[in-house]
Amino acid sequence: MATDSWKNGTSGDWNTATSWTTGAVPAATDDVIIDATNITQAYTVTVAKGESVGASSLTLNAPGDGTNQNPYVGAILQMDGTMTFAPGSAGLIGGSLQSVVLSNGGTFVNAGTVAPFIQGSGDVLFTGTNGFYVENELQSIGTVVVDTKNINELIGNTLTDGIFSAVGPNNVIDLGGALQGLKVDITKMQGPAIDPSLGFTGWTELTLNGPGTQINEWNG
After folding, report:
1. How deeply is 100 buried, as exposed, middle or buried, from its count of CB atoms within 10 A (0-12, 13-18, 19+)?
2. With contact defined as beta carbons under 8 Å apart, do 39 and 9 qualify?
3. Same domain, yes or no, for 126 and 218?
4. What are the residues facing 118 on neighbouring strands?
5. Cα 50 to Cα 28: distance, rounded to the nearest angstrom
6. Which end of the chain is more exposed for a tag (fewer CB within 10 A), N or C?
7. In this structure, are residues 187 and 158 in contact, taking their beta carbons and an 8 Å threshold?
8. Rounded CA gap, 108 and 166, in Å?
9. How many structural domains does the chain have?
10. What is the pLDDT of residues 189-218, one digit of tens each?
């Protein structure tokens, strides 16, 4: 696998070849890095509606690189098209937990562990054969469907990590679905155990914030 990196802290479209260090749009088997150095403001890399892109993995801002600032300084991914991770890959969207992924009507195929904060508007779909794992927060201000082979922080009926929040009137998160046949029945929430190397516990939440908000479970 090769590595392809975004060249500088300037906003632009993913499919612009000259914006990448290889001079080519990342291939489906590439490890993609969006983490420009020496930046002083946020910048956005966009996958527009109707566009399709691929990767083996994506790193969005390295941990500790300054994204935990106010105002935010770092890369934002605006993924409104289709992003497919290579079959057999881990489908990692890694990097700083303070990173931001926004999607308006996008589709993520074979995403695995997702470190950044993700906000979905319109109709957003996560699907594919990888186990999906939210390290930070998946927030819906539209309808977000998680119809993947597994939700890896769901162990039996216990949700062990991640924040799933529906925010604003009538906005929805649907967990499970017919595409991958994942049935969901959450009866308990329990944050992960203490990580001795970090010195703190994780946490998990299901949050409804607004009239008519829903977090639904598909049971077949």
Report:
1. buried
2. yes
3. yes
4. 101, 138
5. 17
6. C
7. yes
8. 19
9. 2
10. 887 665 555 544 567 899 999 999 999 999
Tell me the mean pLDDT in the region 126-148. Answer: 97
Full-prediction pTM beyond 0.85? Answer: yes
Closest to 23 (Cα-Cα) out of 8, 40, 5, 36 = 5
- The pLDDT assigned to 49 comes to 98
In whole angstroms, what is the distance from residue 40 CA to residue 69 CA?
11
How much is the pLDDT for 64? 56
Residues 41 and 61: their CA atoms lie apart, in Å, by 13
Helix (H, G, I), strand (E, B) or coil at 19: helix
Does the residue 109 lie in any domain? no
How deeply is 41 buried, as exposed, middle or buried, from its count of CB atoms within 10 A (0-12, 13-18, 19+)? exposed
Task: Tell me the residue range of the domain where 182 lies.
Answer: 122-220
> How far, in Å, CA of 126 to CA of 9, rounded?
28
